[in-house]
Each structure stands twice: as structure tokens, then as C-alpha cells.
Specification:
124 residues, 7-stranded mixed beta sheet, globular
């Protein structure tokens, strides 16, 4: 069983940056594809970014491309989401997810493990 714990929540202003971290335990982190999703109040959970097990392939939602960067450190069992040029539309609960088989995918349904989420609020 894999446990995922997100950190880095914050209230920031538009244009600011924030880095989220997700620490994994209980599994072979280096074998998992990892992703970040987010869910704003009253909206469905949406894909943000994903990275394959080696960290060589990354994928982004169009809404964050060029502003957000996903990365991982397999030695630290941690995946990161660097968020730059934040805007109020980025306000949401951000969730880390792990997928044990296959490559990184944008669909939340294929992820096996989820963190509890961390809040990001961006004021205008």
C-alpha cells in the first residue's frame, strides 16, 4: 500500500509562485508514474501534470503548460509541482496520484493511489 502526503499549501497573490511536494512511502516509488490533479469548489477533478517513472517524460494540461513544472526525485521518493505565474483560476485542492502500471496518463480513473490533497488559493 502506497501512502502519499502532499505539502506546500498556501494563499498567494496572482503572479506569485508556489511549489507543492508529494512524499511517497510504502511502495517502490521509482516504478510509479506520478501525477497532479486539482479540484476547484463545485468542479470536477482535473488533470494538471504527470511524469513517468524515470522523470524523462512529462505531460501538462493546456491551462498550465508553460507555467507549471512537474519533477520527481526518486532518491527522495518525492514528486514536485512548481507553479509559476499563478492566477485565481488556479485556486483548488491539489492532489498527488500514483499509477503502478503503464505510463503517465491524464485520466484520474487509472491512478491507484491518492493523497489527501493540499489547498492552493490565489487572490487577484
Amino acid at each position: 500500500q502506497v501512502q502519499l502526503v502532499e505539502s506546500g499549501r498556501g494563499l498567494v497573490r496572482a503572479g506569485d509562485s508556489l511549489r507543492l511536494s508529494c512524499a511517497a512511502s510504502g511502495g517502490t516509488f521509482s516504478s510509479y508514474s506520478m501525477a497532479w490533479f486539482r479540484q476547484a469548489p463545485g468542479k470536477e477533478r482535473e488533470f494538471v501534470a504527470a511524469v513517468n517513472w524515470a522523470g524523462r517524460s512529462t505531460y501538462y494540461a493546456d491551462s498550465v503548460k508553460g507555467r507549471f513544472t512537474i519533477s520527481r526525485d526518486n532518491a527522495k521518493n518525492t514528486v514536485y509541482l512548481q507553479m509559476n505565474s499563478l492566477n485565481p483560476e488556479d485556486t483548488a485542492d491539489y492532489y498527488c496520484a500514483a499509477k503502478s502500471c503503464g505510463g503517465a496518463k491524464p485520466s484520474p480513473a487509472v491512478y491507484d493511489y491518492w493523497g489527501q490533497g493540499t489547498q492552493v488559493a490565489v487572490s487577484s
